[in-house]
């Protein structure tokens, strides 16, 4: 069993927005590794970061992603930092991995309204987001098989393009 698509990308790229829409378009179930961690621990991501620290969160995340990759056959969105973990990068090999890319301006704008992202909660979210993109874009590209620029596209437009790319050809269903 293998996910139809795994979605990666920075905070605000739309993983949690596009993921469920893509799953609906493909007629499969949606799953999100952040939601799995919250369900399993009964705690918010912010609380885990604040009380246990990022390394403890990354360990929980690696385990949650490994489990979901092994047992989920729909669309799976990963937490924004999940591909930073080497074991997760190794497990993503061979999967269909969609990198939702977002530029600095749109990323800051989309994440600015929420205080639920512990890594962006500092005094200068723009500088923090720039550093995050500089460090992570190469990592997302390393694991991705498809890259989509999201800045000037609505979630519906992104899903329409992806659903066409990921649709199973009729002859493969027979
Ligand atoms: N293509 C888009 N165009 C405009 N707004 C978008 C687009 N995609 C997502 N958004 C908006 O950006 C915000 C962040 O989106 P979302 O929560 O899906 O990001 P995420 O990638 O899951 O972030 P995180 O890594 O923090 O979980 C939401 O308010 C969402 O409505
Ligand atoms: O970009 C990140 O490192 C994170 C993104 C979120 O999805 C959460 O997994 C958490 O807030 C960390
Ligand atoms: Mg999300």
TrEMBL record:
- UniProt binding sites for ATP: 12-17, 117, 153
Binding-site positions, Mg(2+): 16
Q: What is its EC number?
A: 2.7.1.71
Q: Does the keyword Disulfide bond apply?
A: no
A Pfam family annotated for this UniProt entry? SKI
- Pathway connected to this protein: Metabolic intermediate biosynthesis; chorismate biosynthesis; chorismate from D-erythrose 4-phosphate and phosphoenolpyruvate: step 5/7
**CDD domains registered for this protein in UniProt:** SK
Q: Which UniProt keywords apply?
A: Amino-acid biosynthesis, Aromatic amino acid biosynthesis, ATP-binding, Cytoplasm, Kinase, Magnesium, Metal-binding, Nucleotide-binding, Transferase
Check the record and name the InterPro entries matching this protein.
Answer: P-loop_NTPase, Shikimate/glucono_kinase, Shikimate_kinase/TSH1
Cofactor annotation:
Mg(2+)
Q: Which biological process terms from the Gene Ontology are attached to this UniProt entry? A: amino acid biosynthetic process; aromatic amino acid family biosynthetic process; chorismate biosynthetic process
The UniProt annotation places substrate binding at 34, 58, 80, 136
Q: Name one GO cellular component term.
A: cytosol
Q: What does this protein do?
A: Catalyzes the specific phosphorylation of the 3-hydroxyl group of shikimic acid using ATP as a cosubstrate.
Describe its assembly.
Monomer.
The record's similarity note reads: Belongs to the shikimate kinase family.
* PANTHER family recorded: SHIKIMATE KINASE, SHIKIMATE KINASE 1, CHLOROPLASTIC
What name appears for this protein in its UniProt entry?
A: Shikimate kinase
What gene makes this protein?
A: aroK
